[in-house]
């Protein structure tokens, strides 16, 4: 394909995306295809001869779109938003077109240096400490720094490796870890990526101590954490990492970071803060409280622009206060990667900051988003999500059939169907059954998509607002569908 042909063909793809975004709200949110049906439809040998792009796009429409669940749909309210946006797509296109591989500073200085600057800018805008910046405001080099990981799961894994490196004086990377000696702490509401990190690090998932939460707020119980740390130390174990969650996956609970940090540091443990979804809200001054305690206490911190912040997957921003622990855990220098810039010590080689060697130019995508929206545009987007979620909370509170399951947080509302139309409380098991049935009814209607969790053994619906195409009308429309489905289910239950 010549450059001129590419110019023409690229317009067709952009047209396809623009049409898709314009019409996505008219499609059923959740795909209902049977397992295997997409594979069967697209299966076959690689064509011997080149095919025109029109053919490919027509097959996307015909064969793939039916098997898509539309994450950019304005009534996608499941899990957390994974926002794309026009700016992010254009930034991603730049990254693909440039096609640079930034494993070393020397393999593309702009890839490394833009990433450092963008993450310094974002750290400051989120209210993290200067200690997390590559370059301090006075221009002097910092001890910390940020890196774009593919996901928060990888960020948490690398945080644990850095914490282990520090706790073992570097022996974890040379000798491995002694079974049962090292422990990790997080609440029962922490994301499963922590368990996976423990499995991958060789600690084993049993190293993770699951700390109780308050039954209503879902925040970690600090006294229980203190007890668990004390018991482990008394038994000769070494606490390696405490993880605080800012915005739990289930209900958006924000753990007491300050108290957890003080406890972690008293025991020589690393404090990692998982703010994968909620952290970006701190761009708005009125939501800056979510990151309280991070500047003073966190050793590492992750938040995902690829969730709420309009940056097409993948883009997870991760910072460490002391990069020597992270680089110490992960650096490796085969002869074929040696180069004078690395040896000078004056550059950041991001290959030492994550498990893989090769890396994309994700920073140009994030930079495009930050510049295209500006702080005012990003704040307007975040605030719209919070306002829409407040409307959901108002609707839940005003309807006697529904009960909040936890305090709403930012764009996330957790609730359940717990009473009949007169407001008479249903037995818990019946409420569980009806809540699950209600979610199925909404999701199979094609109108909207909600997801669920369990809290203290009870089934709970999660309504996560924050999509870039979501309007107040989408919230009202979804509520109507939900309310009608509840009428029908309660009618059947009473009959
Ligand atoms: N942490 C929290 C609190 C999450 O909610 C999630 C995903 O929703 C993750 C971590 C994992 O994110 P990722 O898919 O980027 O690994």
From TrEMBL:
<dbReference type="GO" id="GO:0019752">
    <property type="term" value="P:carboxylic acid metabolic process"/>
</dbReference>
<dbReference type="InterPro" id="IPR015422">
    <property type="entry name" value="PyrdxlP-dep_Trfase_small"/>
</dbReference>
<keyword id="KW-0663">Pyridoxal phosphate</keyword>
<dbReference type="GO" id="GO:0004058">
    <property type="term" value="F:aromatic-L-amino-acid decarboxylase activity"/>
</dbReference>
<dbReference type="Pfam" id="PF00282">
    <property type="entry name" value="Pyridoxal_deC"/>
</dbReference>
<feature type="modified residue" description="N6-(pyridoxal phosphate)lysine">
    <location>
        <position position="307"/>
    </location>
</feature>
<dbReference type="GO" id="GO:0008483">
    <property type="term" value="F:transaminase activity"/>
</dbReference>
<keyword id="KW-0456">Lyase</keyword>
<dbReference type="GO" id="GO:0005737">
    <property type="term" value="C:cytoplasm"/>
</dbReference>
<protein>
    <submittedName>
        <fullName>Aminotransferase class V-fold PLP-dependent enzyme</fullName>
    </submittedName>
</protein>
<dbReference type="InterPro" id="IPR002129">
    <property type="entry name" value="PyrdxlP-dep_de-COase"/>
</dbReference>
<dbReference type="GO" id="GO:0030170">
    <property type="term" value="F:pyridoxal phosphate binding"/>
</dbReference>
<dbReference type="GO" id="GO:0006520">
    <property type="term" value="P:amino acid metabolic process"/>
</dbReference>
<dbReference type="InterPro" id="IPR015421">
    <property type="entry name" value="PyrdxlP-dep_Trfase_major"/>
</dbReference>
<dbReference type="InterPro" id="IPR021115">
    <property type="entry name" value="Pyridoxal-P_BS"/>
</dbReference>
<dbReference type="InterPro" id="IPR010977">
    <property type="entry name" value="Aromatic_deC"/>
</dbReference>
<keyword id="KW-0808">Transferase</keyword>
<keyword id="KW-0210">Decarboxylase</keyword>
<dbReference type="InterPro" id="IPR015424">
    <property type="entry name" value="PyrdxlP-dep_Trfase"/>
</dbReference>
<comment type="similarity">
    <text>Belongs to the group II decarboxylase family.</text>
</comment>
<keyword id="KW-0032">Aminotransferase</keyword>
